[in-house]
Amino acid sequence: MVHTAYEVITDTEERAVLVGIDRPRSDGWTLEDDLAELQRLVDTAGATVVGTVTQRLERPNPRTFIGAGKAEEVEALATTERATMVIFDDDLTPSQQANLEGLLPNVRVIDRTQLILDIFAQHAVSHEGKLQVELARLEYVLPRLRGMWGHLEAERLGGGRGARFGAGESQLETDRRLTRKRISELKRDLKQVAQARETQRAARGRSGVFRIALVGYTNAGKSTLLNALTDAGVLAQDQLFATLDATTRRLDLPDGRAVTLTDTVGFINKLPHGLVEAFKSTLDEVREADLLLHVVDGSHPNRDAQMGAVKVVLDEIGAADRPQLVVYNKADLLPGLERERLAQQPGAVVVAAAVREGLDGLLERIATIAAQSDVPLTVTVPYDRGELVQLAHEQAHILTEEHLPGGTRLTVVASEAVRGRLAEFLPHVIAEPEDWERS
Length: 439
Ligand SMILES: Nc1nc2c(ncn2[C@@H]2O[C@H](COP(=O)(O)OP(=O)(O)OP(=O)(O)O)[C@@H](O)[C@H]2O)c(=O)[nH]1
Ligand SMILES: [Mg+2]
Fold this sequence. Notes:
single chain; about 450 residues; alpha/beta; Rossmann fold; six-stranded mixed sheet; five-stranded mixed sheet; 15 helices; about 20% strand; elongated; binds guanosine-5'-triphosphate; binds magnesium ion
């Protein structure tokens, strides 16, 4: 099956042929969904799709991903369409990529992960973002240095091992050593860059301020929602991965409580693992949040599958246990009946961030959830800090008060601000008895 899209384009543009295989799957995605999304990724990267080739296969061909005959079809289409690249919808193994490069000598052969890495590289703005993307790219390249080389070497030697093996290996070893060296430099630099943000984040955590993170599929409207709620002025536009950097803003709730709201990188189906790893420190905001607002493009035909993909990534970054409120966005594009159906789901609200609809209801839900976090706090305030006991009497609800040798022991329910002032007197965490026995 070959579909061809004819477009008027300039010669300097990248022209891409997409290749996907149709195989049995149970993740809620069809090949058509996948290819439509791949097309959006290609658009975002600034290239033009000039054709699509699909093949029905039980599983990918281990050598060439698609069958050899199919590869000839791709080659013919790429030639007639003057394609500059062929993009495979799934990740290619290093050897599949090398074999396909042999079969498609006049185009660049890339896979979905490489395309996503390219987009991230184009969109990286901050120093940290650039370092994270370079790290992800090198992690991707590292195993491919070996694969590429192994293939070329095998070709040259007709599959056997000859005298030149050693020479080739030393060049490979040099490349790998340099790549590894750069990777560890990047990791070190990233640690330093992340330090300032980590310090801020730790301070916010200690202060007891309720922290909310926006998560969701790319293009769901997370940044639009942050802007609508806080006038943050971050970039929001109709393309994939517009946001890479985390932005945190203060948000005042209707009950007077101030919380923080953080916007961060969007997720996608088959999000490359290396990117998740590289963006670890950015994603710490998500892992440590008191509440996740899972922003969903309610109008998207793949809405449910997209929600599933977000769940997979939340699992991967260890944030699946965070309390979640689902925010169905883009309600202005939904028929009234569907809006009502979604609004009735427990743990969900319906909004249209772009036209500021449903925001009051969302804020009230957030306030209710934040208020539930007001668990009692027990602290022992030294006698020379009597002003804090006074503060607690004035601004918190005192459950118990005891005068002990070391100070005044208070159990209180307090606002986030008061909790913050008392936090330095929280009891230190001590090891459990079994830990003592073991050490
Ligand atoms: N019709 C409609 N469009 C919306 C709404 N909210 C956001 N959009 C549009 O959806 C597109 C994506 O919005 P963003 O806020 O950039 O989405 P995001 O989730 O931050 O996406 P990434 O940062 O790329 O992951 C933009 O074109 C927005 O104008 C909405 O309520 N209704
Ligand atoms: Mg965004």
